[in-house]
C-alpha cells in the first residue's frame, strides 16, 4: 500500500512538472542522446486567419536543413493519393447513414455552401466532406501554417518530407465509424456551421496563447467528443509511430518537424515520448 502511495505521488509530481513544462510554447528544441546539431519540433494549426511565423520559428528554420510535416505536402502525387481514400468501403453511402429528412438537409446545405449536391458525393466519407467545408468555418481568408513553413523551406532550397503516408493518415481517420462521421456532418448542416465556427474561433485563440495544455483539454472537450473518443487512433498511435523516424532523421540531419499542436502535449505526446527515449526537449520562448 505504502509503495503504491509513493509511486502515485511520484507520478503526480512528474505529471505536474510535465504540465508546467509544456505550457506556452509551440516551438521545442530537440538535442542530446547522440544528436550533434539540434532539431526543432513545432506545433502547427492546419487552418487559421494568420499563419505568420515568429522570429524564433524563422531562426529555427534557418538553423535546420530540411522540413518534415505529417505528410510530404509538396509530393505531386499527394492529391491523387488523397482522392483514392475519399470513398467509403463496401459501397456504403451517406444517404444510408442518415434519415431521408436529414440527408435532404445535408443535400440542401452542401448545395448552398459548396455548390455541390450530396447526391454527387454520396459515397464520400462524411469526414472528407467536412474537410471540404473547413474554409467556410472561419470568418477570414484561410491560411495554413504548413503552407508558410513550406514557403520558407522552398526559399531556402530545402526539401520537404512526411512522417507518414496518406494511407496511414486516412486509416487513422477511418477509426471513426461512418455513422459517427455522418452524425457530425448532419449537425453541421442543421445549424449552418454555427457551432463549428464558434469552435474554430475558440481553437485559434487557444493556439495563439501557445498553451499546449489548453490545447489538450480543448481536444477532450464535449464539443470535440467525436475526436476525443478516438484520440488513441487519431493522436496517440500516430505519435508513437513517428518517434523512430524523428530519432533517425534528427541524428543525421538538423531538421524542423512541424506537426499539429495537439500531437505535442500529454503522456502520449511527441514531447514526452522523445523525452522517454532520452532526448532533451526544451521550450524555445
Automatic annotation (TrEMBL):
Keyword tags: Glycoprotein, Hydrolase, Membrane, Metal-binding, Metalloprotease, Protease, Signal, Transmembrane, Transmembrane helix
Membrane topology annotation: Single-pass type I membrane protein
Which source organism does the UniProt entry give?
Flavobacterium litorale
InterPro entries according to UniProt: TIKI1/2-like, TraB/PrgY/GumN_fam
Give the matching Pfam families: TraB_PrgY_gumN
Q: Which residues form a coiled coil?
A: none
The protein's name: TraB/GumN family protein
Subcellular location per the Swiss-Prot or TrEMBL entry: Membrane
Metal-binding among keywords:
yes
Could you say which cofactors this protein requires? Mn(2+); Co(2+)
